[in-house]
C-alpha cells in the first residue's frame, strides 16, 4: 500500500528540470530571461497605458495593439517567473493541476496572439483598400466583438485538452526536461495510448495558428495588389510604411514558432537543450520586441510616450 501511495503521489507532482544538460549554466541563462521579462513587462504596460489614456490613439489599429500587449504580458508572466525560480532556487516542483493550468494559459494566449495578428492584418487591409469606409466598418462595437471572439476561440479549442490529460494515468518518469509545461510534453509520461492527444493537438494547431498564418498571407497579398495599383508613389510608400511594423511583429511571432516546430519534427540529432531554448525563444522574444518595434516605428505612440514622461517638452 505504501508503494502504491508513493507512486500515486509522485505522479500528482512533477519536476521541471529547466534546461537539461546546461544545469551548471542556469545562472548565466537566467540573465537574458530576467532582462527580457523586465523589458516585456515595462514595454507592454507602457504601451497599454499610452493607448488607453490618449484619446487620439483610440483607433482600431492601436486598440488591437493594446490587446496584443495584454496577451504578451500574460504569456511572459505565465512562463518566465517559473523558469527563473528553477534557475535561481531549483524550485522546479509543480503539481499536475498547476502544470495543466500553466499549459492551458500558455496555449490559450499563444492562439489569442495569433488571432490578434490576423485581425491586425485585416485592419491594415481595410485601411488601405477601403480608407473612406474604415471607421464605418471597424466600429468600437465590432472591435469588442472581435476581442471576445478571439478569446472564445482559443478557450474553446484548448479546453478539451484538459479532459484529454485528466483521463491519463501518469505512471512513468515524473521529471520534465523543460522550463514550463506543455501538452504532449506532459502526455508522454502517461501509460495510456496518447494518439487522441497527438491528433487533437495537431488539429488545434492547423485550425488556429496555421490557418491564421495563411489568412494573413492572403490579406497581405491583397494589400500589395492594392498598393501597386495606387497612382502616386507617395501614397504607395505611406501604405507600405503603415504595414511595416505589423510585418515585423508577424515575422517575430511566426518565425521562431515555425523554426521550433521544424527542429522538433526533423532535428532528431539536435541536442534536447537546443529544443528547450528554442521553445523559450518563442515565448521570450515576441513580448519583449513587440513594444519596441511599435514604439520605434509608430510616430504617434512615440510622441505620446515622450509627452507622458516629459510633459513640458513639445
Task: Explain this structure.
With about 325 residues, this protein is mostly helical. It has a single domain, classed as Rhodopsin 7-helix transmembrane proteins (Rhopdopsin 7-helix transmembrane proteins), CATH 1.20.1070. It contains 11 helices and 3 strands. It has helices spanning about 1-10, 25-55, 60-90, 95-130, 135, 140-165, 185, 195-225, 235-265, 270-295, 300-310; strands spanning about 15, 95, 175. It has a 3-stranded mixed sheet. α4 (about 95-130) packs parallel to α8 and α4 (about 95-130) runs antiparallel to α9 (about 235-265). The longest helix is centred in the middle third of the chain and has 34 residues, at about 95-130. The chain starts with a helix and ends in a 5-residue tail after the last helix. Residues about 1-10 have low confidence and may be disordered.
